[in-house]
Each structure stands twice: as C-alpha cells, then as structure tokens.
Amino acid sequence: MQKLLKLQKNNRWDLEGITFAIEERVGEPENFIGRIKELDFLYNWTDNIRKKLSRSIAFLGRRKIGKSLVLERLYNIIYSENKGLIPFYYEFTEGTRSGKNFIMIF
Length: 106
Prior knowledge:
single chain; P-loop_NTPase
C-alpha cells in the first residue's frame, strides 16, 4: 500500500486513494490546504504506534484554528491505508464531562 499523505506540485493535498470515512468540516476535501508540518508529524507518529514506539500526545491550540480538521484528515488517511491501525476519533464537547458519559456515548 502506498503512502497516501502526499502533496501535489501546487501544495494541495493529493486525494487519490483516500476514502473519506468521516466527513471533514472543511466541506469539499480539496479545500483543505496547508498544515504540512502538523500532518507529517502526526502521520509519522501513527507509524510509530504500529511499531509500539509512540506515546500519547496532546493536540492543543486556540479555538477555530483547524485542530479538528487536521485530525479528521489524519483519520481518513489512516483509515484508507488499512495498515493494521484502527483510527479512533472522538470529539469532546464543551461542558461537564465524566467517564460514565463517555462510555455511554461511545
């Protein structure tokens, strides 16, 4: 299976081979541009998960800067590559949260 995280010459992401298992909040997938360093770092991090070398990370930033979109695209790439890693995406909403609520929802 080829690596699906790749850029075209115009610095837009190549979408060939990607199955969009979850809808990305960017609208049309080709509207997602940039975030090269972030996606490359996270993609390599997932490769190290397969090798049992990665640890958990926190993906933090101000509101509305694209954190969720980056993770949605990463999810779709990992899902499409099907290399023995099952992507998991859960978005916490604002407000009171508990482990019991998480279990019931998920």
